[in-house]
Write a structure and sequence with these properties.
It is found in: Cytoplasm. The chain has 2 domains: 226 residues, UDP-n-acetylglucosamine1-carboxyvinyl-transferase, Chain (Alpha-beta prism); 204 residues, Alpha-beta prism (UDP-n-acetylglucosamine1-carboxyvinyl-transferase, Chain). The chain is built from 12 helices and 23 strands. By secondary structure, it is of the alpha+beta class. Strand 16 and strand 17 form a beta hairpin. The structure holds shikimate-3-phosphate and phosphoenolpyruvate.
């Protein structure tokens, strides 16, 4: 099992570019596959999770070429052109692939089976299966978990579905099935705003999607029209550098993260860090097709503890592990509540982060739906030592950032899964000034 050794360094500065957005990359493959014509994708994230989606779409009969670095050409087969795979589709570590594919495959005339790695096989799938069954799909899970078995040939009807949890994956699964609903629109009502990449991309493919006041409605199209897609840098990958630049011991340093997707349904961390007193400046606004993009400049600041407003939780859902590192360096207590979803990600991100923080001398208390962290505004907040990421990419990268305020090296166990979202994290982190080395 590979691990990182992360050495304490004097600080970070300069400019970094993060790889393409994982959520957008998955969706580009799925929608490109069922479009009519050839979809060209640039800025594509060549990470293990997105390659799992690519392998699955290829197994369903779609020709997908990798035409250059981060460039993908998807030869769409049309809405009715997918073919039955001759094996179970292994989606590795990727919850997004499994939830969204469950929706997409519910509308097909053939059977499918979805499996994944040991982490994915433990994650809840009924949240997607339930509304899809209401639409007429035939889906079986095992105690609510994978394998997900979909019996093809069902006639789907559009539904009006109120999401019990704020989940973009479930919303997207329902919308993808809604593409196949017979003559009836599908409406999803969200309890809180979640990422809207599916809606934006459906519009790019020529679908009629109406979104207003927490409701998204899709009118089933007769076809999706292939298009050209530009994937922005992943805000969730940029988050590690936003926190690194904020807790940076190098005074007056500026760390700039370039080409970051700043879709407002993703940028909760900007608001949370601003409430904590961070100095983040979003500059050079532009767009990558349907998605807004900018550069983010980060300067060191003395952060202060806050109670994170609950409405920001879904807008920062993947950023909490690294936010906990920021909170450890803040003056005073930070409280996170309303974040029970963190317990059903690649790991239980509340428990696993709390264990690692405690192992490095941080005082924190686990809550059923969050955490309380006692920040210490000292130069060396973390003792260093060994922490276990439990195979969770975001935990491994978060503890790497902690090295900026650590008294001794940090050994981070079980880091291979960093490649699911950020294939060259050690290299990019190194270019900013961190010292992360990989060991077997
Ligand atoms: O739709 C997506 O691409 C994602 C939605 C979120 O999951 P949930 O919908 O389960 O909150 C997020 O945690 C995941 O990394 C990607
Ligand atoms: C939760 C995540 O991804 P997924 O649900 O796709 O495994 C993540 O990337 O943090």
């Amino acid at each position: 099992m590979s691990h990182y050794i992360v050495e304490p360094v004097s600080g970070v500065s300069g400019a970094v570019r993060v790889p393409g957005d994982k959520s957008v990359s998955h969706r580009s493959l799925m929608l490109g596959s069922i479009a009519d014509g050839v979809t060209e994708v640039s800025g594509f994230l060549e990470s293990e999770d997105c390659l799992s989606t690519m392998k699955a779409m290829r197994a369903l009969g779609v020709k997908i070429e990798q035409t250059g670095p981060q460039a993908v050409r998807v030869h769409g087969v049309g809405m009715r052109g997918l073919k039955q795979a001759n094996h179970a589709l292994d989606l590795g570590n990727s919850g997004t692939s499994m939830r969204l594919m469950t929706g997409l495959l519910s509308g097909q005339p053939f059977n499918s089976e979805l499996i994944g790695d040991s982490s994915l096989m433990k994650r809840p799938m009924e949240r997607a299966a339930k509304p899809l069954r209401e639409m007429g799909a035939q889906i079986a899970t095992l105690d609510g978990k994978p394998p997900v078995k979909i019996t093809g040939g069902a006639t789907l009807k559009g539904i009006r579905y109120e999401l019990p949890v704020a989940s973009a994956q479930v919303k997207s699964a329902v919308l993808l099935a809604g593409l196949y609903a017979k003559n009836t629109p599908t409406t999803v009502i969200e309890p809180a705003v979640t990422r809207d990449h599916t809606e934006r991309m459906l519009l790019s493919f020529g679908c009629q999607v109406d979104a207003a006041r927490g409701e998204v409605s899709l009118t089933p199209p007769t076809q999706l029209k292939a298009c050209t897609l530009e994937v922005p840098g992943d805000f969730s990958s940029a988050a590690f550098f936003m926190v690194a630049g904020s807790i940076n011991p190098k005074k007056d340093a500026v760390l700039t993260i370039t080409g970051v997707g700043i879709n407002p349904t993703r940028t909760g961390l900007l608001d949370i860090l601003a409430l904590m007193g961070a100095d983040l400046r979003v500059v050079n606004h532009r767009s990558a097709g349907a998605e807004p993009v900018a550069d983010i400049e980060v300067r060191p600041a003395q952060l202060k503890g806050i109670h994170v407003p609950e409405h920001l939780v879904p807008l920062a859902i993947d950023e909490f592990p690294v936010l906990f590192v920021a909170a450890s360096c803040a003056q005073g207590e930070t409280i996170v509540t309303g974040a029970e979803e963190l317990r059903v990600k690649e790991s239980d991100r509340i428990a696993v982060m709390a264990d690692g923080l405690k192992a490095m001398g941080v005082t924190c208390e686990v809550l059923p739906d969050g955490i309380r962290i006692q920040g210490r505004p000292e130069t060396k907040v973390f003792s260093g030592g060994t922490v276990d990421s439990h195979g969770d990419h975001r935990i491994a990268m978060s503890f790497s950032v902690a090295s900026l305020r650590a008294a001794a090296p940090i050994k981070i166990l079980d880091v291979a899964n960093v490649a699911t979202s950020f294939p060259d994290f050690p290299g990019t982190a190194g270019s900013a000034g961190l010292n992360v080395t990989v060991h077997d």
